[in-house]
Amino acid sequence: MDREALDRHVLEVRGCRRCSTVEPPPILAPPEVWPRVMLVGQAPGPKERDLGIPFAFTAGSRLFAWFARLGVSEDEFRRRAWICSVLRCFPGRAPQGGDLPPGPTEMANCRPFLDTEIRLLRPLTVIAVGQSAIQTLLPEPASLQDRVGQLFTVEREGHRMEVIPLPHPSGRSTWLVRPENQERLDRALALLAGTQGWREGFGGPSPTLERSPSTDSETGQKTRTK
Ligand code: SF4
Questions:
Q1: 114 Cβ below 6 A of ligand 1
Q2: Which of 74, 108, 179, 207 would bridge 64 by S-S if both were Cys, CB 3.0 to 4.6 A apart?
Q3: What mean pLDDT is predicted for residues 86-106?
């Protein structure tokens, strides 16, 4: 566990302004303990950008309701899991409404951050939420139906981890309307609960993730009010 390297990484991410097309700041809210579980989403939305917290709005409510079914509250998940995304900045609003999807150039710019986190944190379980995250971790083309409800073992950055794909919890997604896709989600959650990372991450104490005062002082993070 290299906490100084992780502190440096967090500051680097939060200070990044490499892409001119996105709306900073980059969103990253490290947990309190050294995480065994990593969650990779698509990108922050405008609420997340304003609050400085990932999954801070309706999609987050739906996502954390899934984990509550496994006995882990939102607070507990945020305290013990590393939550990040394929794109760390809000991509902006689409002219036709909704949020823009992450662009390929911006994703390529942001990709090294994820690789660094996998190398530093060595998560046992990675939850890939939505197709952008799934395709980043499992590059072979496949539909959501062929991904959700299965467990994949992935080797990356010299590290082996279990990857559980989940659908994006956005209310705009109609994928979960179909009963067979709900069953896929149920299977995925059951698989997630059985992974080593989930059992170690939420089944007992983990080492505290001490961060230097300078890390927090430069975050610009706002306290979330519920
Ligand atoms: S999207 Fe990623 S690479 Fe681009 S400015 Fe934000 S943090 Fe940097």
A1: no
A2: 74
A3: 92
